[in-house]
Amino acid sequence: MKLRTSFILWFVVPVTCLLALSNVIYYYTTKQMLMNNHYNEVESFSSNIKIYFEHSQRSADYAEKLLAQNLRLAAMLAQSKLPPRLEQVSNKELTELSKELRVSDITLFKRMGDDIVATRSSNPTQRNISAKEFTDFWFLALKQLLDGKNVSIPEGYTLPHYWSGPVDVSSSDPNALHKFGYYHDGQTDYIIDPYFREEDMEEYVTLASYMDMIERLQKEKPFLIEMTGFNAERFGKGIYEVKQNNRLIIPYPKRPIYFGQYTMNSDDDVEMVRQAHRNKKTISYQASVQGRDVIKSFVPIETGLPLVIGLVSDYSYIQNELKRQSEPLLMVSFVSFLMLGAFVLVLIRRSKLAAAVISAEKIYLESMNNLFTAIRGLNHDVGNIVNAIHAHVQKKEYDELEKVTQAWVKEVVEIQDVVVIRHPTLSAIVQFAASSAIKQKVKLEHDIAVTGDLKLNGEKSLDLIRIATNLISNAFDETVKLPVEERLVQVAAWNAGRLLYFKVSNRGRQIGDEELPQLLSAGYSTKFKHEGLGLQVVKELVQKYKGQLWVEDFESAGATFMFKIHI
């Protein structure tokens, strides 16, 4: 037992701890490595996004200039087809001309006092709108054109006699982007304003909104959940609205979000967007949004707009990869634990076998010591017995001589009879019974009729010894209450198939009908001192091997305890 305990303490426990520790270390190092790789990938991806956006912005700027130039060309062609005075132009004429020139609409502006008003247009919603309610630089640009000056403001696109404002919404249609171009070279009393609506400049809108790129990147990068274009100057602030011609509009440069979706919002996003824009450096951090673990990155883009790209990547991508890489190790660890457990079980079984063998040998040796003590006692008395025989012969007391020799031969035969059992477990049990019989002057009869090779493992062998010796001890305790000549204990064992039967009988007190049901109950005893296992524990040991224990009467006075177990 001490060896087994020491082995578990000094070998099994350290090995188990090492396996567990190696798994934990591997898990966290792999997790950290995957996180670093993911952050590096996001950083690299962010750098590529930044380059791509800056390139796309230049492409969008170039496309916007082409639109502006096309609108200037359309305005010059329109001037060649229109009368020089505004009152000579009809709205219907402008409608037909816009179709001919392939622009969305054409509007004509004329100075009206200190204002500049759209008095003619192919689009009814554009008629009678006031340019004075436009943004300051917009009205100033129109005023400079009517004054015959070159437009000097930095916003928009300027050519001789021409100015095109930035792509933006209009008071006539605040939900769509427009590109306006204004031309006036002094040959007419009005400004010619051809323009494109959003649906008529799809290529530019695609470049400016980056929708194609967003869709492509989400297909290429499965971990990418969401991409958002933030306005670093307006995001997190209130809605910026201006009133133009009795309508509230949000100018495109003042929108908090330029493009994309923004559903994975966090409390820290506003500060992260401003910090990324202020420091011109990508910022990434881990967050939990809507019950999902994500990594958020904010990438500043250097364009004419205060643009910061927000990227939301799925952290479960790391978890899944970690799980995929950890599964082989977990399987190896599981198999290792199973093998270690099997090894420990084998060790325990062998230890129990060794303990059973030691216990059987101990009982056997004790029984043999008792036998040798009896033999030495007979050897000591042999001289006295011989003298007694000689004296009875001389006196011709043949009846007394017969009694002495019968008693002596009886003890010798009993001693010789117990040493012929070959099975060590059964032999130890019978030796125990024989030594108890000699010691307590009880007649012992035994019949061990076990055939074949009776194989008992260590634990079962030990339990069999415990059951049998307990019943035998109880039998001797009862029969010694009788006179010596009436004392009798019988022990029998036999096997039938996979069952081993064992019977212990003794003369003694008759067990009453009222006592019989209680005999195998827990805590019940007929002794003044509770010794041994107790019949309840014996019953539990028998049931452990799917066996059965029962009690019968023996002759006219006494009891028989029988049990059977599977072997």
Question: What's a concise summary of this model?
Answer:
The chain is of the alpha+beta class and 567 residues long. It has helices at 2-81, 91-101, 136-146, 202-209, 211-220, 269-279, 316-394, 398-417, 424-440, 458-479, 535-544; strands at residues 105-112, 115-121, 157-159, 162-164, 178-183, 191-197, 224-231, 242-244, 247-249, 257-260, 283-289, 292-302, 306-314, 443-449, 488-496, 499-507, 548-553, 558-566.
Describe the structure.
This protein is an alpha+beta fold. Among the domains are: 62-205, Beta-Lactamase, CATH 3.30.450; 373-566, Histidine kinase-like ATPase, C-terminal domain (Heat Shock Protein 90, 2-Layer Sandwich). It is built from eleven helices and 18 strands. The chain has helices at residues 2-81, 91-101, 136-146, 202-209, 211-220, 269-279, 316-394, 398-417, 424-440, 458-479, 535-544; strands spanning 105-112, 115-121, 157-159, 162-164, 178-183, 191-197, 224-231, 242-244, 247-249, 257-260, 283-289, 292-302, 306-314, 443-449, 488-496, 499-507, 548-553, 558-566. The strands form four sheets. It has a six-stranded antiparallel beta sheet. Helix 7 (316-394) runs parallel beside helix 10 (458-479). The two termini are 25 Å apart.
SSE order and pairing:
Blueprint: H1 2-81, H2 91-101, E1 105-112, E2 115-121, H3 136-146, E3 157-159, E4 162-164, E5 178-183, E6 191-197, H4 202-209, H5 211-220, E7 224-231, E8 242-244, E9 247-249, E10 257-260, H6 269-279, E11 283-289, E12 292-302, E13 306-314, H7 316-394, H8 398-417, H9 424-440, E14 443-449, H10 458-479, E15 488-496, E16 499-507, H11 535-544, E17 548-553, E18 558-566
Parallel strand pairs: 14-15
Antiparallel strand pairs: 1-2, 1-6, 3-4, 4-5, 5-6, 7-10, 7-13, 8-9, 11-12, 12-13, 15-16, 16-18, 17-18
Helix pairs in contact: 1-4, 1-7, 7-8, 7-9, 7-10, 9-10, 10-11
